[in-house]
Amino acid sequence: MKTFTIQPLTDILSYAHATLKESDTLIFEVLNPDISRGSYAGEHVTIENKTYLYRSYKAWSDLGELLFCRMLTPTPLSDHTVAITYEKLDLSDSFHHSEEKEEKYGTASRFAALCKNEEPAFLSPYLRALRSVKVGEKKRILNLGINTGDEFDLIRQILSCEEYAKLELIGIDHSESAINHARERFSEGNATFYVHDINDLNTLDLGQFDLIITIGTLQSSGIDFKPFFMSLIQNYLAKEGAVILGFPNCRWMGGEMIYGAKAPNYPYSEMSIVVKDIYYCKKYLQQKKFRVTLTGKDYLFLTATKINPILRYNG
Ligand SMILES: C[S@@+](CC[C@H](N)C(=O)[O-])C[C@H]1O[C@@H](n2cnc3c(N)ncnc32)[C@H](O)[C@@H]1O
Asked: Which atom of ligand 1 is nearest to the CA of 114?
């Protein structure tokens, strides 16, 4: 088995790429990160006259993700070394390749296996966004691209039964199977779901909302992002309303959420489109006197709340 001691990461990367061209698995021996906890990547660690460059498990996990591999449980090889094992992901196992329209994200799709609320890099910024808009104080909440309702489920989990019962929740999606499932999950009587194209919201006569949430939906093909977003804010957001927009910056493949959105015409993840769209929304909302924050990593959350004019005046 190959052992890495003081070789730089560039050498390890070259070795990894060359090995993964020939094989589905990659194994090598390195310093056990537990031995020098608190060191930074690249610090020299000498044990029994042998020097290693330190790297944490987080660094090894990041490398696995960058190589489109899953990292298996490291196995101890000696008192101070472990074997790092990576296994290639099955990149064809993904809903991203589906040619379906309405049912691309339906209950029979591979997308239905995802539970984003169980991914820390999704859950944590989404929770923060819900708390920063004070979701429990919002009466009418609209979610566009609700799918089977996970985003409402989290709201239900973090509020008390009394707080939750006071909300009026509306979820819209063009996937009939996803909406049917959402209807079964939310039987308390305060949630309404529509199978509907969100390009045609006018015909639903929805009124205005205190909170609009839309995650991973506005950048879908078939939605003209800028005019759609402007019309949403102008026609459906109440005067003191708040907005949570979630922009995926990841791909789901072979059971993993892999950092970085795939951009057309690039063989690697490229962020120009997502940054352009986020910047557009941020500027637009700031002009309309919203306080806007941007958080997250694999999912980027733009959260906008109205600036209180009295507080603003008093500084
Ligand atoms: C990437 S999924 C995101 C679903 C959910 N918000 C999430 O993050 O897990 C996009 C959702 O938007 C829905 N969608 C896309 N375009 C739509 C449209 N024009 N009208 C209604 N729903 C649409 C899809 O069916 C799908 O459920």
From this structure: 9
Residue 130: count of CB within 10 angstroms of its CB? 23
Query: Of ligand 1's atoms, which has the minimum distance to the CA of residue 198?
Result: 20
Q: Are 26 and 48 in contact (CB under 8 A)?
A: no
CA gyration radius, the chain: 23
**pLDDT exceeds 70 at position 43:** yes
Query: d(Cα 174, Cα 172) in Å, to the nearest integer?
Result: 7
Q: How far apart are CA 64 and CA 261, in angstroms?
A: 17
Query: What does the pLDDT read at residue 115?
Result: 93
Q: How remote is the CA of residue 102 from the centroid of ligand 1, in Å?
A: 9
What pLDDT does 312 receive?
58
- Scored b (16 or more CB within 10 A) or e, 172-197 reads bbbbebbbebbbeebeeeebebbbee
Which amino acid belongs to residue 170? I
pTM: 0.93
State the distance from the centre of ligand 1 to the C-alpha of 165, rounded, in angstroms. 25
CB atoms within 10 A of CB 64: 21
Task: Look up the CATH superfamily of 95-313.
Answer: Vaccinia Virus protein VP39 (3.40.50.150)
Please give the average per-residue pLDDT across 64-89, as a whole number.
Answer: 97
Distance (Å, whole) CA 245 – CA 256: 23
